[in-house]
Write a structure and sequence with these properties.
CATH architecture: 3-Layer(aba) Sandwich
CATH class: Alpha Beta
Oligomer: single chain
């Protein structure tokens, strides 16, 4: 057995199948994943990047990537999903919990050429189960009202839509876990 050379090598990974048959290897992100995560977001469609960050976003620099690569792995977790067949990063998901560990906000991004292949659903399912394992009462997602694909996916998963007071362009989707 060889020793792990990085935190990413030492991190427990799980295999997650998608509905289309893509086998994903999903693990927690670490600081040394910054370059692969930057390249991933460069391959995410510009509109999807805007939906993910709720603002126009070109290439993500160190400052934008830091919250996704240097997390405490309890209140905040960042998941990376790699296609087992190619080894390429095809999805990213975040779970950011409030201080009381009652509510977790979910954010999922999928590389453009993997959209419609079940990667988003698989990551949403993984994050929701992880939130329940951590004892959260609910998970939420804040979406741009134009992001119909994400809204439909979350509704299909059991999320309920609510308006966001003061911002007619956003919708909060909520799923009660307990």
């Amino acid at each position: 057995m060889t020793a792990a050379t990085t935190l990413a090598d030492a991190t427990r990974a799980v295999t997650v199948p998608t509905r289309s048959g893509v086998a994903l290897t999903v693990r927690a992100a670490h600081a040394e994943d910054e370059d692969v995560l930057a390249a991933f977001f460069d391959a995410v469609l510009p509109e999807d990047r805007r939906f993910r960050f709720l603002a126009a976003a070109g290439h993500l620099d160190h400052t934008r990537l830091l919250p996704m690569t240097q997390v405490d792995h309890w209140r905040t977790e960042s998941f990376l999903a790699f296609d087992q067949a190619t080894g390429e990063l095809v999805g990213s998901a975040m779970l950011a919990c409030d201080a009381a560990m009652e509510t977790g906000e979910v954010a999922v991004s999928v590389r453009g050429d993997y959209r419609g292949r079940g990667v988003g659903w698989a990551l949403l399912d993984l994050v929701a189960h992880e939130a329940a394992r951590r004892g959260l009462e609910r998970v939420i997602a804040i979406e741009d009202r134009c992001n119909q694909a994400a809204i439909d996916l979350e509704k299909d998963y059991g999320f309920v839509a609510h308006g966001v007071e003061g911002d007619p362009h956003l919708v909060m989707l909520e799923k009660v876990l307990v």
